[in-house]
Amino acid sequence: MGEYGFDRIMYGFTRYRSSTSLGDPEDFILLTNHDTAYTDVFIGENHYNQAPMVRWALENEGAGSWAMLAAMQRSKTLTAPERRVLDFNYSMDVKAGYTISFKSVSARSKRAIALTAQRGMTQADIDALWDEHGRDIHLMNNVAHLKILTLPYSAPNRGLTKRQREAFEWVGDGKTMQDIAIIMGLTSATVEKHLRLAREALAVETTAQAVLKAAFAHQMFILEA
User: CA-to-CA distance for 180 and 191, rounded, in angstroms?
Assistant: First the structure.
């Protein structure tokens, strides 16, 4: 992206969005090359929850020019928290760019990437560049996004052991606790212990929630090298 004028990027992905929340930040996939002086505030202090372009990405699909931010300022439609986020971004030289909001197959998931222009470039410069190369940029980001979706992922301290994963896979196949115990050569109590520890690791209350979460994170039915 640097060859097209974007030297800082931030890719965000949640599978656990609700009507009032993007989900537990511990479950986010966040990839960025912004420095920590920026991410410690934007992410660490939850600025992303009030960021206008994040809100745009939640409600739209496709590519959005940050020129809309200037229009929102002129029309005075920004809320006070949104203005604070913009002021912080401008102080960190995050002033011009594009946001790509990817198509979601689930109402609970959202994926987007923010492409920040190099320092010294204006939004007009970036819009002109996008007019010429936007289709290629959009395509490359979609390919990268699809690749990321295929990767196994677990948040820190939320991975499954081999035995836990195996027990979940049999649950996913519809086996009873007794069936699983026989298949795995364990007692029912030991199987339940594996499932309980896995629920705790995934920070959920029920086995059904744990199976869904493990499946979303590609921690089940995977081939090992």
Answer: 7
CATH 3.30.420.10 fits 2-149, yes or no: no
Partners of 111 in the β-ladder: 13
The DSSP secondary structure of 69-94, one letter per residue, reads: HHHHHHTT---HHHHHHHHHHHHTT-
Domain residue spans of the chain: 2-149, 162-216
**pTM to 2 decimal places:** 0.72
Residue 178 has pLDDT above 90, yes or no: yes
What is d(CA 109, CA 106) in angstroms, rounded to the nearest whole number? Answer: 5
Terminal-residue alpha carbon distance, the chain:
32
Distance CA 162, CA 10 (A): 32
| Strand-strand pairing, 62-65 and 110-117 | unpaired
- At 23-42, the pLDDT tens digits run 777 777 889 999 999 999 99
Q: Helix (H, G, I), strand (E, B), or coil: what is residue 175?
A: coil
- Domain covering 162-216 in this structure, CATH number: 1.10.10.10
